[in-house]
């Protein structure tokens, strides 16, 4: 039986491990947990960066309910999430199924479709998007060929948010790669047996492919909802940081930025940030609870 080492000996033996972990620990406490706890404190204060914070209690949180622009940002962000996430996942799954057919040059096409995911959230792509959907942009030039005079898609409150939803859908590359990996894991013998029994393509997709792919759908759904709630750059660049026209692109994060760095209401912005965190946590928890009804795990043999 091995005698237990003294505490100092065990500590000395663990020092190299802690040395390698130290960069991660510094990042966790100095760049993540520390700032989060600080913003939680600021959310209960009146803080402008230029003066010491003054304790307000729950005033910042109660003000949110009576702030019309805040409520508008909730509606805009909710609409953005509601329409962009499902269509993005449908586009990703459709392209993944096409690429899963064993076509030549698969690696090339996979890289091409993945590029928008790498560039879609960048400032350069947002500027390009503004040029494409501008009054003299590429979309209106194409419409002019067919005799239709298009309007300024970004300058109109009726269509500005739609252009940002299209931009989000265009970034389907990341979920597409995950769908493609999931499709490769579906046993081919199941599809072959179903085909022998007379099941058509649609029947095989609905009865075999889609149920076995539901864990991947669920994973992508959670990630994309979280990402959509955090969208900022496209709305900031396309609207010039105003959320216009008529607050039609006033995303939650953009309004938070305006209050924090435009009005220097750090306490109010911190309260908004924590409410956003709770909203995302609530959506994620709801997805996990509902997943018991529709996500199928083949290794457990139950939903």
Automatic annotation (TrEMBL):
Compartments where located: Cell membrane
* Entries under PROSITE patterns matching the protein: ABC_TM1
The molecule here is called: Sugar ABC transporter permease
**Key word Transmembrane present:** yes
Q: Out of the domains of life, which is the source?
A: Bacteria
| Family affiliation | Belongs to the binding-protein-dependent transport system permease family.
The residues that cross the membrane are 21-44, 80-99, 111-129, 160-183, 204-226, 266-288
Q: Where is the signal peptide?
A: none
Any single GO CC term annotated in Swiss-Prot or TrEMBL for this entry: plasma membrane
One record GO biological process: transmembrane transport
Query: Which species expresses this protein natively?
Result: Ruania alkalisoli
Ranges for domain ABC transmembrane type-1 come to 70-287
- Identify the InterPro entries for this entry: ABC_transporter_permease, MetI-like, MetI-like_sf
Q: How would you describe this protein's topology in the membrane? A: Multi-pass membrane protein
Q: Which PANTHER family match?
A: ABC TRANSPORTER PERMEASE PROTEIN, ABC TRANSPORTER PERMEASE PROTEIN YESP-RELATED
Keywords recorded for this protein, A-Z: Cell membrane, Membrane, Transmembrane, Transmembrane helix, Transport
């Amino acid at each position: 039986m091995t005698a237990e080492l003294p505490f100092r000996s065990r500590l000395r033996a663990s020092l190299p491990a802690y040395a390698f972990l130290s960069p991660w620990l510094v990042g966790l406490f100095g760049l993540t947990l520390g700032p989060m706890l600080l913003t939680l404190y600021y959310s209960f204060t009146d803080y402008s960066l230029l003066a010491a914070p003054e304790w307000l209690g729950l005033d910042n949180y109660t003000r949110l309910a009576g702030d019309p622009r805040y409520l508008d940002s909730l509606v805009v962000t909710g609409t953005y999430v509601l329409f962009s996430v499902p269509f993005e996942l449908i586009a990703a799954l459709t392209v993944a199924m096409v690429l899963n057919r064993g076509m030549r040059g698969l690696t090339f096409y996979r890289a091409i479709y993945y590029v928008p995911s790498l560039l879609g959230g960048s400032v350069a792509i947002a500027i390009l998007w503004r040029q494409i959907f501008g009054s003299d942009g590429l979309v209106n030039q194409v419409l002019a060929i067919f005799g239709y005079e298009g309007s300024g898609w970004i300058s109109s409150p009726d269509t500005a948010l739609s252009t940002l939803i299209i931009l989000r859908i265009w970034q389907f590359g990341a979920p597409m790669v995950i769908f493609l990996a999931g499709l490769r894991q579906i046993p081919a013998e199941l599809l072959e047996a179903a085909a022998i029994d007379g099941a058509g393509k649609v029947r095989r997709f609905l009865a075999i492919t889609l149920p076995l792919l539901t864990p991947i759908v669920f994973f992508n759904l959670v990630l994309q909802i979280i990402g959509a709630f955090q969208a900022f750059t496209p709305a900031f660049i396309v609207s010039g940081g105003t959320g216009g026209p008529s607050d039609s692109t006033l995303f939650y994060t953009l309004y938070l930025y305006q209050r924090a760095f435009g009005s220097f209401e750090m306490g109010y912005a911190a309260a908004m940030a924590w409410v956003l965190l709770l909203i995302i946590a609530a959506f994620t928890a709801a997805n996990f609870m509902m997943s018991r009804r529709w996500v199928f795990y083949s290794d457990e043999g139950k939903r």
